[in-house]
Amino acid sequence: MRFKVLFLIIILSFSMVTFAEDSSVTVVIPEFDVSVNDVVIDTAESQYPVIVYDDITYFPMTSDYLDGTALELSFDSESGLKLNSKDELGILEQNFLGASNRLGSKHKAMLVPFEVEVNGNVIDNNSEQYPLLLFKNITYFPITWRFAVEEFGWQTSFSTANGLSIIIEDPIYKPSVSVFPRRITSESASFDLSIEHDESEKFDVAYKLEGASNTLNGKVDQSGKLELNDLKDDTAYRLTIVDSETKTVLDTLYFYTFNDFEKVQTQYIIDLKHTQAPNADIYVLGHSDIEDTLRFEVRNYHIQKLNDRFSNGSAIEGSLFSLDQENHVVKIKPLDGAFAFKYTVELGYHMTTENHGVEGIYTNDYYMTSGEQTLILIDRSYGNTDNVKVSFRLKEGWDSRCGLANSDFEHLYVNDSDIENVSALNYYAFKESAFNVTDKIVDNTPITSIVEKGISDKFTDVFQAIYQEMVDLWGQSVSNDSYTLMVIDSEERIYAGEYDTAQGYASVWGYGEMLVHQIYHRWQGWEMGIEQDMHENRGLWVEGFNEYYCYKLLEEVGEDGLRYMRGFYNDYRRDVNSNNDVGILEHESKTQSRVYYKGAVISYLLDEEIQRLSNNEKSLDDVLKLVLDDWLDNGTKVTYDSLLGHINDVLPEGVMIDEWWQNNVVTNKVHVIKELQ
Questions:
Q1: pTM of the entire structure?
Q2: Where are the alpha helices (DSSP H) in 189-307?
């Protein structure tokens, strides 16, 4: 059993707080010992004893314990309680004694009713697995890994003989070194170092550069400049800054050198280490054969509205830099073929679209966005502008995922496939202790679920089952490139985009239609999927078939897909009984939402008709397999004529579906489906 604690003081008069009935919990006074730096807490006589709730030890933050735990606390009625680590460790005293507690006895405590910040981070007590408690008008914190270890740097251990032991080392000043990119070419790279240390003590910094099958080591000039030359072109590197004496790693940065044959090349460093959520610094480094000023912009792939998130831009190496925040456009003139600039993107909670909600978000536990929500990309008029590299700079204990392929080093990704529209790719980073990561191989395709702890395992189970069903439906994978699902624990409508390589959203969306719809698009609708030649009338194929299969596949894996199909049918019936109804192949701008629900109903009827005409030997599933095979083998794009041809191909000889197709797809026959009423 893992025991964890945290401390907090706040003495309130009981009359100041009104508690709801459902906020009370049962706690127990433990029978085991609790010690802090070998000082045993007198639980039996303490006025504010240590307690246990849900098998987790809770410690009272009273004034006599603060010095001995290297914490400081403040409270006022408006802003609530603030608890912070401090640099001095005093002696733990026990001033509040004189009580008589029966060990093992049960008592009532309450959830903390006021706002609490720990080291500047607001605690959402309602979503905490082990919430902060108020017992005898004193705030109690759980000794969990999240608080005791990550926030305060304590060491905890438990044994039957000695109980719970908390060791708190005396905080000491540690030198700090951060490395920042300044310029990268095909054969060199230069960096600025920010060095903070006690000048009265000797402190030397060294670097280690790994890449190109060899490792370079050297000292760093005390001026804070680092120049690396004679590098190999088009090569991944990891630069590590270390304390020369202790070899302690102080900072790490990943980068790629450029090549000499592409006209314009860029790479992005997403710095989450040196900024606080919701702000992230983005470094853009590039190589250009174009001497004129280059234009960068936000590419809107499917986003409907973009907030003014981009700010604080500046050139690192170059001239004539400008950032148009309102239009999200950057202009910069290369200097000797190289350029570098940085900007800040703010990813707080912003309601962006009605159907998708909040798009892109960065908190203390995760970073979940798409490129269009984060990256300012080079204008496409310069040529192959999607051949980019992306790397993350992460806080300790974090991991990352990206829709691009892994390079030779973790957290450094490179576009080595045919993926276009990097603005639509998803970019994820997350605190490992806050998420469950599950990997699986399906038909040679790695699929990964990153699900925040506290969320049902069904997200992963349904995701894996649906992906397998999708492979079975189409007959094979459309690509071996990885696919990632990220789900965060939130009741807010948060959404990080959809693409062939990933989708990310909040748990409030559930594991139903949203999940299936985006996976289906991997085979049909996006870059990796079957190419189409349907011009403006693609809605039935792209969205209608999709929504129908959301119902069908969810039923296959034992989920309630029928409720979605009934919802589509109800929308269809309302529409056909109004004056707004048009045929499914009418111009899509007139039927932006109709293609989903009406398309699902027509697909439902089409599948039934195929089964009827084939005496239940064939279905729409067989048609999809033929469409994919024809695309992979012959490069045949999907048109409604080719689709009709494939439907007839699966039917018995001499049987045709053309008349049904004319009445239901080309024209606008109205249907009543008793099974869906």
A1: 0.76
A2: none
